Amino acid sequence: ADGSTITKGGRDAVSADPTGEDFPWKPLPFSAVLRKSFVGEGGAALDRSAVDGKALGLYFSARSCPRCREFTPKLAQWYRNVRAKLPGFEIVFVSSDRDQSAFEESFAEMPWI
């Protein structure tokens, strides 16, 4: 423990959770809500440690979205520029594609996870 406050609503938390089932009442670290593995460049399997300690951007996109298809190449170039300056940055693709084929087409244009 480092002495930092993890909740200002402790009284409300106790009232809402009288058995302590949800204790401790602090937010999960972001990495805990991510998948345990990712698809990396070229289809390589990466585990969660690939993003540990990095500043993350989440990119929600789908092949069926015209605006996404237009934006993805711009974001890819921006990502390359930022990564050259800040290697501790990563983008995670959150696919809304409806099938594996569409996912693979989308992901082929992306230099990130």
TrEMBL record:
<dbReference type="InterPro" id="IPR012336">
    <property type="entry name" value="Thioredoxin-like_fold"/>
</dbReference>
<feature type="region of interest" description="Disordered">
    <location>
        <begin position="1"/>
        <end position="22"/>
    </location>
</feature>
<dbReference type="GO" id="GO:0005634">
    <property type="term" value="C:nucleus"/>
</dbReference>
<feature type="domain" description="Thioredoxin-like fold">
    <location>
        <begin position="53"/>
        <end position="113"/>
    </location>
</feature>
<dbReference type="Pfam" id="PF13905">
    <property type="entry name" value="Thioredoxin_8"/>
</dbReference>
<dbReference type="GO" id="GO:0031397">
    <property type="term" value="P:negative regulation of protein ubiquitination"/>
</dbReference>
<dbReference type="GO" id="GO:0030178">
    <property type="term" value="P:negative regulation of Wnt signaling pathway"/>
</dbReference>
<protein>
    <recommendedName>
        <fullName>Thioredoxin-like fold domain-containing protein</fullName>
    </recommendedName>
</protein>
<dbReference type="GO" id="GO:0004791">
    <property type="term" value="F:thioredoxin-disulfide reductase (NADPH) activity"/>
</dbReference>
<dbReference type="InterPro" id="IPR036249">
    <property type="entry name" value="Thioredoxin-like_sf"/>
</dbReference>
